[in-house]
Amino acid sequence: xxxxxxxxxxxxxGGLARRMGGGDKPMREVGxxxxxxxxxxxxxxxxxxxxxxxxxxxxxxAAFGLPVIADTxxxxxxxxxxxxxxxxxxxxxxxSVEYVCSASADCPFLPDDLVSRLHGARLAxxxxxxxxxxxxxxxxxxxxxxxxxxxxxxxALAVEGIRKIDRWTAxxxxxxxxxxxxxxxxxxxxxxxxxxxxxxxxxxxxxx
Length: 208
Fold this sequence. Notes:
Layout: E1 9-12, E2 29-30, E3 33-34, H1 35-43, E4 50-53, E5 68-69, H2 79-93, E6 99-104, H3 114-124, E7 129-134, E8 137-146, H4 150-158, H5 165-169, E9 174-179, H6 193-206
Parallel strand pairs: 1-4, 1-6, 4-5, 7-9
Antiparallel strand pairs: 2-3, 6-8, 7-8
Helix pairs in contact: 2-4
């Protein structure tokens, strides 16, 4: 098997959605489908199984049939905690897996070649980690994470208090895979009510 064919994916939905007035951003609808359903449809064909990182009652996601894993670090420290939870899950449940791919669960238009191109960038640059970028802007929640770095990540989160992904990834060799933003940015994320409206317009315009 190639590296990318055995890569599980984690959908990061652990945030508190303060800019959306609370609630689960991925459960908002765009074009008649929840954002989470769109993310699952995009990533499932690219990954060897998906898990969902979310805090609170996992039953609210039962319709998706995905394992739901909560943060294992207290006080909602951000997406790094979700990545750590996914790495810990993979180490226990998929011990032969070397990498996990993460994606924000509020990005409804993810590219169809996300996982393969992230692995391609990682291999080309002999890097330990890889992240996606578009129009020169990095998207640090969307990337490949080496399972064996989970102990170092836990130390950074729980002991050092590191919260920003960029601050942690700066310690390692990091590859970046670039995507164009025409006709639309594949990493558009719905953080606000206005973003939902913009996403609706994109769906209508491009039939996505």
